[in-house]
Amino acid sequence: MPITNLRGQRIHYEDTCGAKPVLVFAHSFLMDGSMFHGLAQRFCSQWRCISWDARGHGRSEGPPQDFSYDDLADDLDALLAHLDIRKAVVVGVSQGGQVALRCALRHSARVRALVLMGTQASTEDPQKLPGHTSLVQEWAAGGLSDPMAKGVAHRLVDAGWHGITEWQAKWARWQPAQLLRCFAAFAGRDDLTGRVAALEQPALVIHGGRDVCVSIPRAQAMAQELPNARWLQIPGAGHAPHLTHPAEVEAAMARFLAHVGESDMHLVAA
């Protein structure tokens, strides 16, 4: 479980290694790279799978100053450079999808293709942001109560998912300053609407039919703006469909990755 110093941050990552084309996984807000253990296990026979913990999440250090999603995109680029990876397919969920889009915009040569789940190109829905803000502020002030933990689970995954208690235990350990700083990056992100049309990379957009964080119209708007995107809606899935509906997500990714192409898959720098 390596930790490396990148751009003034101590970043934790996991790497299956091997001379294979690369999948790199970017997690959602309040989660960490371990949310991709299932996907990494599924694809590691054919792909080098890398997951990492963004600033302030998981085992990566929380920064002493504010940061943006552009910073996270630059961190991802720096991690791939550190690992001598020339190009990768970036798989992002929610916040991780926002980071993936920004990495493709800021470091286009590094991104071979995109798999986006629970993601929108726009800023946070103004009808939902006050509720998110109120929950985080109450959490930071007085700790994570059981009803709040259920609310977070409902938003981020699914309150009835079999693995949710492990994540609720992790959320209870978040420190207030760390929580507020990470939420500030989430709530203060800039709008990519109108910009993602410049992305020529193939993209697979997967969205849960019961996602309560990102509405279907917002996700569809992003998919329609991306010039080379495929859309898949999974009925019954929430904000993290790869956790609750792994078979459907893994099958869709396998089909997509089979058609991404091998022409420039020489991903490890000579």
UniProtKB/TrEMBL annotation:
Pfam families: Abhydrolase_1. GO terms for molecular function: hydrolase activity. The keyword Metal-binding does not apply. Residues 21-246 form the AB hydrolase-1 domain. InterPro entries: AB_hydrolase_1, AB_hydrolase_fold, Carboxylesterase_BioH. Keywords: Hydrolase. This is Alpha/beta hydrolase. It comes from Comamonas terrigena. The lineage of its organism: Bacteria, Pseudomonadati, Pseudomonadota, Betaproteobacteria, Burkholderiales.
